[in-house]
Hints:
The chain is of the alpha+beta class.
Amino acid sequence: MYGTSRQKLDSNGRVSIPIKHLQSFNADSATGTGHGVLVTGEDGCIELFPLDAFNEEIQKTFMLHENPRDINAREQRRRLIGNAYGVDIDERGRLSIPNKYRDFAGLQSGPVILSACGEYLEIWSPDTCPKLLLEFLAEERIRQK
């Protein structure tokens, strides 16, 4: 997945996934439904992984640690697996973000920024989003006029 887009978080905490990314979430071609995993990012965003990519990330990350009792490995497990939350993507390509995740990322109803980072998406509040992403969106808006 690649690219950055501005989406809208509705009053029920739902956000739409751009159509170009839905296939990555195993979206069923007949119903459009799919599955993902939310994780709190270390820099204040929410990371949204397709279910398969999340499982691969766990394998990649923890296969490197020979000792699962290592304190660093345990902390990484807590961050990645301990705060993970499975989500369903509905037939309209939307998912609901639970309150605790919205609070963590400072998300409120209105605009949010989705930035694709290869195998996952980052969901940002416009207030905490890196300037580079916001500048890119501003340039795109100017080019489209």
